[in-house]
Amino acid sequence: MYKKILIAARGEIALRIIRACKELDIKTVAVHSSADTESLHVKLADEAICIGSAQPAASYLNIPRIIAAAEITGAEAIHPAYGFLSESPHFADICLSCHIDWIGPQPAIMEMMGDKAMARKMMREAGLEIIPGSVEALENEAGAVSLAQTIGYPLMIKAVSGGGGRGIRVVRDEQQLSELFHSASKEAELSFGHGGLYMEKYLAAPRHIEVQVFGDGKGKVIQLGERECSIQRRHQKLIEESPSPGISDQTRRKVLEYAIRGAEYIKYGSLGTVEFLVTADEEVYFLEMNTRIQVEHPVTEMVTGFDLIKEQIRLAATGSSPLMEKTAIPRGHAIECRINAEDPDKNFKPNPGEITFYHPPGGPGVRVDSHLYDGYIIPPYYDSLLAKIITWGETREYARKRMIRSLQECVIEGVATTIPFHLWILRSEAFIEGAFDTSFIDTL
Ligand code: MV4
């Protein structure tokens, strides 16, 4: 096992990883920007190194500084968490070439799955259903026009290097195609440094369901159940839960089986997530694969009882994990609400500032992952996630009720938060019935 690792992240997820390390008797090195000297990950780690100024490019994305911090402190491995450099095969390669372990999948697989057109090709080879569309990335506008005639309208243009919501366009007819092709390409070039595009048939109002997988890198993969992630606003997830309500057992078996088949085909070697779109008539299509730990991993931990981060570190350090031999038998239901420092009354405007008072919820079946404390000043440079509240219940309804009382118990003073908006969703008929899809918030 490692004696010391460096965590290349901040906020709640840096704390989550520090907690796993403490339980594994691993010393931790925090890196931080000059805007984060008073952040909790800096205080809770065994060592902390300031690696640059507030702008992410100067610090949390600054590869030479992070590597130097690992070398100076003698860290044997780097955990990239989510965000920042977590999906950079380039960074993973540099770590390995400096004899620092990468706590994540093989860089070649990160690169393959990072190219969304390549990921589609691989998953089709593995036998998964992919959304009808491009086989290869689009060559040019003429190629797009002719492919569009085969796929039919409406369709979507997506960035090969994308993921999330950037570089995506819905194209309704051929007249729109030229303009949207060029604007998507330009946006992709600016956001990702690569303007490559691919095309898919547009699925109206699908559900977004993802499967947590864990692979040993030698061809064996286990699944840890699915997560329902359809409640999101402008491609930012707000609420996740496991298991997914409102899909048949047959559809559930299908996504779980697809995820294992796809991840085994590429010999995936770490924690990962296979994402699917599921249509109203429960057709299942591979969407993309995320090669990192995700924000919403705690809902899976709550229903399986496993500590995913601990097992991910154990696998990276020793090449095996006892989890690999287990079958996840989900128990009950878990729901996560992401509490952001955003004002729902001002179009979710980010709202940094001082937390003048913080009182997290507690009691049975409640988990809070947060880096907040009384007097903490939220810097304006990073994302606005303040806390994740996760509740567990024997049934979905018990978990929902527990979430409502937890949100009511939670006190965050000094900044406006999304708590009132969460309460509204949790009490809505669509949520109670589990009858919602990805259009729920954005079509309000
Ligand atoms: C789609 C789609 C419908 N049809 N692709 C948006 C983010 C990106 N990761 C995938 N996205 C979508 N791709 C086809 N062919 C609808 C969405 C989509 C969506 C997907 C997942 C979660 C929330 C979403 C919200 C709006 C649209």
Give a verbal description of the structure.
- This protein is of the alpha+beta class and 444 residues long.
- The protein folds into three domains: 4-103, Rossmann fold (3-Layer(aba) Sandwich); 132-201, ATP-grasp fold, A domain (Dna Ligase, domain 1, 2-Layer Sandwich); 207-433, 2-Layer Sandwich (D-amino Acid Aminotransferase, Chain A, domain 1).
- Helices cover 34% and strands 26% of the residues.
- α4 packs antiparallel against α5, α7 crosses α8 (174-192) and α12 (396-409) runs antiparallel to α13.
- It starts with a strand and ends in an 11-residue tail after the last helix.
- The structure holds ligand MV4.
- Residues 131, 156, 163-165, 168, 200-203, 206, 208, 232, 235, 277, 287, 438 line the site of ligand MV4.
Indicate the low-confidence ranges by residue numbers: none
Total number of strands? 22
Bound molecule types: ligand MV4
The total number of structural domains is: 3
Helix content: 25-40%
> For the largest beta sheet, what order do the strands appear in spatially?
13-12-9-10-11-14-21-19
